[in-house]
Amino acid sequence: MKYSVLGIISLVLTCHLTTSAQVAKSTKPTSPKAATHKKSPPVPAPVTTSAAPATIIVPSWLPPTNPVQPTATMVTELLDTRLDVKFDWSRQWLVGNALLTLRPHFYPQTQLVLDAKGFDLKSVRAVIGGKEKNLNYNYDKRKITINLDRSYARNESYQIRIAYVAKPNELEAGGSAAITNNKGLYFINPLGTDKTKPKQIWTQGETESNSCWFPTIDKPNQRMTQEIAMTVDGQYKTLSNGLLISSRKNPDGTRTDIWKQTLPAAPYLTMMAVGEFAVINDTWRGKAVDYYVEPRFQGTAKTVFGNTPAMLDFFSRKLGVDFPWEKYAQIAIRDFVSGAMENTTATTIRQEWVQLTKRDLIDQSYVAEGTIAHELFHQWFGNYVTSESWSNLPLNESFADYSELLWAEHKYGADAAALVQQQKLTQYLTEAESKREPLIRYNYAAREDMFDRHSYDKGGRVLHMLRKYVGDDAFFASLNRYLTQNKFSASEIAKLRLAFEETTGEDLMWFFDQWFLRRGHPELHISHTYANGQVNLRVEQLQDSTFTPIYRLPVTVSVWSGSQSQPTDYKIVVTKANQMFTLPISQRPSLVKFDSESQLLAKIEEELTQDELVFQYYHARSYLQKYEAIDQLRPKLGDLAVSGMLRNAMNDNFWAVRLAAVEGFRRYKGAEGNAVRKELKRVAATDKKSQVRAMAVTTLASFPNEDFGDIYGTALNDSSYLVVGAAIDALTKNPTASTRETINALQETTSPALLRSLARYYSLNGTADQYQWFLRRMNDIADDELYAYLQNFGLLMQRLPPIERDKGIQRLESYARTHPNISVRLGAYRGLYSLVPSMPAMKATLQDIRYKEKNDQLKAAYSLVQ
């Protein structure tokens, strides 16, 4: 699963903790790892324990003690599921008939317990020799406990048929930041009343939500084959796992499609989708590769998804295990509760990420392609071999996350892979400000807690370190061993470790213990001196060793001597909290670079002079080394050597270097001001990468009291939505009469980027005319965009007479109280809060919303709104 970037609640809480922290000492990070996350020690909370006479300072990121969550006990094995389902669109019900084949795992059984949430049960029967027999059962709306007709031994299978009606909308609402709803089965625009949205049905099973629409043993350590017959109106396409083995028209105008998957997979990977889709056909080695999109996007679907066969080929070759399943399909769906989901043979993806126009595609750097790679890699890691418990979720998600780097490296080169590495590490370190957990954690409050930046981004970076340590040949040979030894079964972290140990011949418990089973990451301070023909390199581990290990860190140090273009590389292993390494060198070095391969998952503070950083930029062997030099030298832009370096970087071959350089010139006041502005104007108009053009517009807007209206006006007509959005943002605080008409002409855009910018613009510059625009376009905004949109709406309403605000206030209050997405509820709450200065009575409404809110995380976020 690739979850949507919806962790807004977590972000609010993280930002509060970070800005409220008492900074114990000033630090100056000098690596891209630390560049975005300066070291801010958490707020200490003194706690005295009986085990230690001294006071132990407990960091704020240390989580509470949660209950142990063991792997589900295997009492019964689910072997096969056959479903016959119809849909009642008006009531949003599924009418189903399930035939389950099961057997005891080891001990004889006289009873069967199935997960089945919120059903109306019509009958429960044993199927014996072609005949059916009613069985006694108890049902508490969560589980069916069935008394079998006799005792069954472990070598005996039996069949149960259950007739039922699933009513997902009558279940108590739940969800998390990663998976915003857990009712399993979703009817989109079921009555067709919203003319802007198609009618669809789709399912989302992870973690344990498929039991909301069919009876099963809803645990990841189960595996079953399956067959699903879906009866739908004739105009709809269907999709499910496996192959379409039959499609027949019925006398009443409906059609019944039967999908069959002959290879076993976990129940949470079962899916269905129904809707009016265009299906674009592709192939890979004779297997069907299909892309399902709404008809108006069929012209660009091949461009968006077209690398899928090449990915199938690349991953199959790298892993030495061919894609094992019968087919592979990807389907774009509306109002998805996550980002994407790797259902076996049939991935679901939120439509905003992959239903793109030709103009949208201009701005796509790696979002859609990274998601496609991520979900495809799950077909091996997660589907072919499945985590036996949610505690072991990184065995699924860390690998899928790392596949994004592997594909970028293969398709676009080392710099593109380094950019992925940087972005992922930044995301983990942001989360680590307020939360640090072991990757494999057997204590958690809720299953969805596992879907975090640890399981994804930290896990991917740990795999990268493991790859760098054992080498590419051993890394991929170990993955091949792991996959082949554990195929079509459930796995845990020890099996991955054993696969690497059996391949390499080395005991790797130290690596798996410190990176998978313990929390935190290294916080390093690096310094060096030169004397008597040697470099003395000091490495200090500064992390709190009470809660975090002292790490063993194999790493490369590169030393450039004099003006040599190629350095000498030294392999060292850090094992102590404070350690000195002596590196022989014939003359004073121009640069000593710790972790020169940029592989460590760490916050690194490295003492480098301005001259060393400038040297590093011009002799860099990777994007990350260039970025580090640019980032660390930004405060010294007044120096001609530094500004010259950034001007050089604005012409770099790799777009992310150009982006960093352009951003570095924000509010530049140096001697080369006119030349810099001229260069920025050139970049804004001509750079081939839209992200860089947009940043140039943003940087020009950062110069106070300067008029770049001609640049903004030109940018409003750029082919890129990002560039147009940057121009609107630039004009938000400095609006001009000449551009207002052009901006207003964009009001009907379908671009999320433009809608974001328009909402910000109108929040400060809008009039009563835009009040109705906000209300009307609210229906077009994705949930993760509504958070900011609703707050901007509140700012607009501040300038309207109170009597004209009623409809908007009602809409915000409705969202704050009832919207299923917690980030939307928070955005609506903040929008209402902005009205308090002019409407003191709003305080009572907000107090009532806080009082009735049941989500603890959201209530904590409410307390920070002020």
TrEMBL record:
Region Disordered, residue ranges: 23-47
Highest taxon listed in the record's lineage: Bacteria
Pfam assignment, any one: Peptidase_M1_N
Domain Aminopeptidase N-like N-terminal: 83-269
Residue stretches making up the Peptidase M1 membrane alanine aminopeptidase domain: 307-515
InterPro entries: Aminopeptidase_N-like_N, Aminopeptidase_N-like_N_sf, ARM-like, ARM-type_fold, Peptidase_M1, Peptidase_M1_aminopeptidases, Peptidase_M1_dom, Peptidase_M4/M1_CTD_sf
E.C. number: 3.4.11.2
PANTHER family linked: PROTEASE M1 ZINC METALLOPROTEASE, PUROMYCIN-SENSITIVE AMINOPEPTIDASE-RELATED
Record's protein name: Aminopeptidase N
Taxonomic placement: Bacteria, Pseudomonadati, Bacteroidota, Cytophagia, Cytophagales
